Amino acid sequence: MKINMKYLFYLIIASAGFAGCSSSESKEPAKQDSKPSAPAYQLATVAKAGVSSTVTLPAQLAAFEEVSIFPKVNGYVKNVLVDIGSHVNAGQLLMTLDDPELLQASVQAKEKYARSKADFSIAREHYSRLLEAAKTPGAISPLDLSTAKENMEADSAQSNAEKASWQMQETMQDYLNVTAPFSGVITERNVHPGALVSANAKDVPMLELKQTAHLRLQIDVPEMLAAGLTTGDTVTFFVNALKGIKQTGTVVRVSGNVSQQYRTERIEVDVNNTSGRLAPGMYADVAFSSKGNTHAFTVPKTAVVISTERKYVLVMRNNNISKVDVTTGNQNASLVEVYGALQAGDTVISNANDEIAEGPVSKQLHS
């Protein structure tokens, strides 16, 4: 029993010594590297090339030709031969008007012309006889002959004037028959037989005519995209009223004018609608491939920083970071066109953000 107690005593002392050594080792300060870690900037090279992309824009279908038909003369509506939805051909009679006063004015003008023509005939005959008699020396005085000639010429001018007045009245009579200026569909009718119409009223038309077999697809393209569009480019569009039906067309007209209000340029695509499925006013979504601007610079989308005040990229030159203001153009999933004081081959920070300040780079950068 004594031996065991002695053995236990030595065991306790050895354990205490080992614990003391461990404690002293744990109190020894660990060596730490006080040097801060360098930020990991990712770099990219500016390339001079356009970015091809597919852009979807809203558009609207419009009639290739349309006209509001107003009366050219005052009168009463006599007959209306068409209605909404009527398909008409160019020159077809649409409606007739009645104006008794205009008819009487035409008759009076005709009678005046007939009287003036008779006066001219008499004056011409009188001058012809005097001219024949003047061949005999002393028979007719030169003054009488000259007066007769002037009277004949005056009657001729008066006859021509009365003829023009009569022809004008006849033309006004023709305006009582309203015809279609081109082939199309009547889309609006606002008058009925017996209604009084006035040539001075231009607020509500009698009829509205639109050409629907041939339509215009009108697209307002942002100016940065419009610069890469030319006539002949193919576009694809979907009409909301005809779900799932893909249609194509080519750019036929480019306005060449940018709206100062919306900064867009109007382009038009001709659409064949002989089937009649489409109608003016329908809304469409247009998708077209933009080839991109070959004069633009290309950088990663993440290299462009957009703040509340400016849009810029961070350029690395001579171990120095500077902010260069840019405007953007076409873009795809990873790249974007930029325009600014850049050069091909410049280095930009691709993981840029507005917390990176301008100035010298004092830390090691990792590309």
Structure at a glance:
With 367 residues, the chain is an alpha+beta fold. The chain is built from four helices and 23 strands.
Please give the share of residues in helix.
25-40%
Instruction: Tell how many strands the DSSP assignment holds.
Output: 23
Order of helices and strands: HEEEEEEEHHEEEEEHEEEEEEEEEEE
- Major beta sheet summary: 9 strands, antiparallel
Shape: elongated
Amount of beta strand:
35-45%
Structural classification: alpha+beta
- Computed Rg: 46 Å
- Unreliably modeled segments: 16-35, 363-367
Quote the distance from N terminus to C terminus: 76 Å
- With helices defined by DSSP (H or I, 4 residues minimum), what is the helix count? 4
Rounded average pLDDT: 85
